[in-house]
Every structure is written in structure tokens, then in C-alpha cells.
Amino acid sequence: MLDSAPAVPHNQIIAVIGHMKEMDQPSEYLRAEVCRMLNLSERKLKSWEKLGLVSPSATFGFSDLIALKTLKRLSDIPPKKIQLALLSLRKSLKDVEQPLSQLKITADGRRIAVHVAGNRMEPISGQLLLDFDDAEIQKLRTFPTEAIRGPLDEVQSEFWFQRGLALEETGAPASDAVLAYRKAIEVNPKAAGALVNLGTLLFRMRKLKEAESYYTRAVDADPSYPLAQFNLGNLYDEQGNSEEARKFYLNATRLNPRYADAYFNLALLCERNNDILQAIGYWQTYLKLDSTSSWARAARKQLDRLKRAVRSK
Asked: Does 192 or 82 have the greater pLDDT score?
């Protein structure tokens, strides 16, 4: 990777490997496979099926795996509380039919916490409880969902964003995740996370113009978001636009001085442009932030090679 030109930006290599893995994922898993993957006993699986928390089946799909992983996280919560929480979430949130696979649900001690749009919901009471005052909550209850903008839009957008993340995590077809992120953006056009993730999926599909559009929108929506700056730098790097790539990599490091990947890519960019001293500086900064990974070993080799080249002149 490091001695060939043009070099592939660091996170793009990881993205391509991840994409290749996605293509190898099966669409259905046998019960025995699921139990082995999740370190789950057949007895526990049957108990969840008996309680109606998951549907009895000989095989399980991607969304089922997500639901089962969520149930494992809630192992300290009484099953009755989980049942009440799921019922409440289905009533409270539009478009949520399978909360265990569609939402991020965690255990907060002996309580259930649902995370959406930076808020936590406590669904046990059967009410949607966000960080609003009584007047805001009453407004949400009084007006039709379609007429409410602002906080509720963020909740719906976050739901679709989390759905897209879950689909990517389980290796579902990329088109499914694309659809989820598009829905998140439709509800909230300034959803920077969804904009970046959609841009990355389009980048992997080699739809570079579309990817650039979504990355740019993410930067505009949240100028303080380092990943948006970094990914836009990668895209320009891929297109051979060194000046723009350098600008956005530097933006990422200004926003997050410990952004190791950005220094890695800056070092590669400087090498390709024969800016050897700058490349040495970026390799040294990278190694201060990451000294043990396989990427660090590669960076150290490059740094040593460049130092020898400078000494030989």
C-alpha cells in the first residue's frame, strides 16, 4: 500500500474491506448458529419466544439478530418490564414496529433507556418522555404528528439513522442502509451523521458526485464535525485534488487534534507531492497518537525510509 502510487487513503482501505465482508454475509442464520454467535442458550432463546419478545423461528434474519443482541443487553431487566416498554414504544413512536431492532435500547441499572436524538426515553410508563418541560410534552400529545416539527422530527430522523447503522453493522444490503439514511435526511435535512454515512455508502458505490454532495451538506450542517471534513478530504484525495484534500484533512485536525487517521492521510498526501519534511512531521504526529496498531508499524517503516532518504542527500 505504502510504496505504490497512488496510495489509497487509510479509511478507504478499511471501508473497502468492510464492504467486501458485507457481501459475504448470509441473509438467514440457523438457530444453532445464532446461539453460538451470541453466546446464547437454546433455553433462553425459547423463553424469549414464549414471552413474545421474539418470534419463534427455525432461522433468523438480520433484524432478528439485532433484536436478540438488544435483549442480551437487557438481561438484568425483568421480562415484564421489557414487554411493557416495547408496547409503549410502538404506541409512542410513529414507524416503530420492532423497537428491539429499530432503536438503540440499553439498560440503565434496572431501568430501560431508549436513546434518540440525544435524548433518553423511559418507556415503562407508556409515555414518551424526552427532555422537554410539561408544556412541550403536552404539545406533542395534542397536535397530530405531521404538524409537529423540531424535536419530534429529530426523533424520527434519529430512528432512521440508527436503523441505517444497524443495517450496516449486520451486513444487510447497502441499498437498505441507503434508504434508511435517505429517510433520516428527508425528515431532518441537517442530520449530519446520516449525511456523512450516506455519502460514504455512495463513495463505496463509486458515485463520487453524489457522495461529494452529501459530504458537503454534512460540513454545512455541522462545521464542527471532524468526520465530515475528513471524509470530504478523502473524496478529493481519491480524485487527485491535493489542495482540497489537504484543506479538509487540516480542518479535521483543527477540530480534533488527536485525529490520527487525518495525520496518516496527510503524510501520504505530502509524500505523493514530494513534501518530504512535512510528511515526516505528519508521520511523527500520527505515531504519537497510534504507536501499536498494524497501521503504526506501516507508518514507522515509512518514517524510517523518509529519514534515510533525507540523510542520504
From this structure: 192
pLDDT tens digits for 163-201? Answer: 888 888 888 888 999 999 999 999 899 999 999 999 999
* pLDDT score of 139: 45
* pLDDT reading at 88 higher than 80: no
Can you give the pTM of this predicted structure?
A: 0.55
Tell me the pLDDT tens digit for each residue of 136-165.
444 444 444 443 344 556 778 888 888 888
Average pLDDT over residues 219-226: 94
Closest by Cα among 137, 158, 161 to 148:
137
| Alpha-carbon 112 to chain mean position | 22
Name the residue among 221, 220, 224, 242 with its Cα closest to residue 233: 242
3-state helix, strand, coil in the chain (%, to 5): 65, 5, 30
Sequence-ordered list of residues with C-beta below 8 angstroms from that of 182, at least 6 positions apart, any chain: 198
Side-chain-side CA neighbours of residue 218 (13 Å): 27
Distances (CA, A) of 284 to 155, 255, 267: 42, 19, 9
Q: How far apart are CA 14 and CA 143, in angstroms?
A: 46
Cis, peptide link before residue 151, omega less than 30° from 0 = no
Q: Cell numbers at residue 262, please?
A: 487525518
Helix H or strand E encompassing 296: helix 294-311
C-alpha cell at 239: 480524485
Distances (CA, A) of 297 to 271, 292, 304: 17, 7, 11
